[in-house]
Design brief:
about 240 residues, alpha+beta, 14 strands, about 40% helix, globular
Length: about 240
């Protein structure tokens, strides 16, 4: 029988954490409203908190020495974000920019450490979350390094498909406006090269645009270009 005291949770990247343990996390969080355009943290800030997105979207970015922004992740409702090394006083190696008015739960590392020490099942779930986070990072590096910019772009489109995709006739529409600049920042390419690659994909009838949204028409074609390994959707996400 389910516990009537448990909250109904929106599972983002925390699907590996049980409802019991997610409610333990939620019970020690402090709610914060954050406006669009603000930052949860900046690269170089002390890493002493995690953030749980209850409502909204946040992008994780890395800035190069030349000032170019690279988008590492795009997070949404139900995602737990931050640098997951609670027992070490480190600094953030990336920044978190809020893309729309959002509500987040703020979790101090000291409270996280206490939960880990008190509940062995929580510690196991948290280790699963950390492992899942590392797998997402590893697969993104694989996509960027092994199959060139076309492979990286197709992989990114597949991740967007898994994260924001919704049925649209016989196809799937990515129900978030993603600009060519966003795509170029996700794969470390120029906007002009992304324009050319998308044009090639449109000529091959693999993708299309409708109302400013990307429509995925031939997922198998994209999978072939990036040598897709058919990772589970909780790993293959943006």
């Amino acid at each position: 029988m389910s516990n009537p005291n448990l909250q109904t949770l929106n599972k983002g990247n925390t699907g590996c954490i049980s409802d019991v343990n997610m409610n333990r996390l939620l019970s020690v969080m402090k709610d914060r409203a954050v406006p669009e355009g603000s930052h949860l943290f900046w690269e170089g800030d002390t890493s002493d908190k995690l953030f749980y997105i209850k409502r909204g979207r946040v992008k994780i970015t890395k800035t190069t020495d030349e000032g170019k922004e690279l988008i590492l992740y795009m997070h949404q409702d139900g995602d737990l974000i931050g640098q997951a090394d609670p027992f070490f006083g480190t600094k953030h190696t990336f920044s978190a920019e809020v893309l729309e008015d959002s509500e987040v739960g703020v979790l101090d590392h000291t409270d996280l450490e206490l939960l880990i020490c008190q509940h062995c099942d929580f510690a196991i779930d948290f280790m699963k979350w950390m492992g899942s986070h590392h797998r997402i990072t590893q697969t993104k590096f694989r996509d960027l390094m092994l199959y060139g910019k076309p492979g990286a772009l197709c992989s990114t489109l597949i991740r967007l498909y898994n994260t924001y995709g919704e049925p649209h006739g016989d196809h799937i529409i990515i129900n978030k406006k993603i600009t060519h600049t966003d795509l170029s920042n996700m794969i470390g390419a120029t906007r002009e090269s992304v324009n050319r690659m998308l044009s090639d994909l449109r000529k091959k009838d693999a993708v299309e645009y409708e109302g400013g949204m990307i429509v995925i028409k031939d997922l198998e074609h994209l999978q072939g270009i990036c040598h897709c390994e058919l990772c589970p959707k909780e790993i293959c996400r943006i």
